[in-house]
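Form P-L/3: holo structure prediction, ligand PMV.
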Amino acid sequence: MRDSQLIIATAPAKVILTGEHFVVHGQPALAAAVDIYSKVTVKSNVPKNIEITSSALAITCKFSIKELRKKSNLISNDEVVEPLKYIVEKVLRKAGQIDHGLKIKIDSKIPVGVGLGSSASTAVSTTLAVAQYLNLKLTKNEVFDIASIQEKLIHKKPSGIDCTTATYGGVIFFKIGKDPEYLAPNDSIKIVVGDTQSKRSTGDLVTKVTKRVTKGDGEIHTISDSAGKLTMEAVKSYRERDFENLGKLMNTNHKFLQKIGVSTILLDKLVNAAQQAGALGAKLTGAGGGGCMIALCYPEDKHKVAKAIENAGGRSYIVSIDTTGVKSESLST
Ligand code: PMV
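OUTPUT (holo model):
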């Protein structure tokens, strides 16, 4: 790539329609990539120097290639920077250009730490942007493999659902160990996201639920089995465009998540507000403990549902399905 050129890559956020947490323990889940994006710009830097900046993620860090695998002393956000350093090094090595200097700027519109897959999306867009800048052709599967390390470092025991949606886009039927299945997206239904704006750690919440599973807690095993069956029915409903049934299943899924202790008073309040305002169904999305909920509704009800979420104390986003996943473009400056 010439010094006057830059690469921009974007990757979508995600919502989980059914099955979070239980998916970590082998049950299926239904997720969708949505049109809120992380955007990563890569351009040239002096040789052997890497700079990563992001006002959204509160990162300003500079380090030499030698320091790539060491903890940087200039960082303000280790959990975000360390996986990105790993990704950059991996792609530089794969391209055979370990001495190449890079300036990497992250402009994410995805709220951070609230269950919309912000870190996975950033990892995926960073992987593709750096690879494209170095003229390294990666398949989406290779982008996924490199970016997935980020989730493993941050979330400890991830299912891989976040990186899958960010890489491939679309509506995805997901189960660990199986190839994801893509469902034809449908515009006759809308998703409204409600953000409690309360950040939490996915890793901690997954660990809390996992402890109960590994202790052999009978209640959680029963709920997990029911959640797996619920997702199978949700996939059937989505395929058959039976959104009223899908909404009901989402309401039930929220109750399961309440039972395993990952909902909060504010999440329940936003879910209730959306249901009262005419949503077909509503539930928390992602790890819970704060973060976001989603509501499924007919297009004509989306503003009413969004307003109800706002009135109940949340921040609302009306989203559409992203069908592309990660993509990049090259610009000349
Ligand atoms: O990172 P979050 O909050 O979007 O949660 C991801 C969904 C979980 O099922 C809780 C974890 C996982 O890796 O699947």
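COMMENT: Residues 16, 20-21, 23-24, 115, 117, 155, 158-159, 161-162, 202, 206, 286-287, 291 surround PMV (CB under 6 Å).
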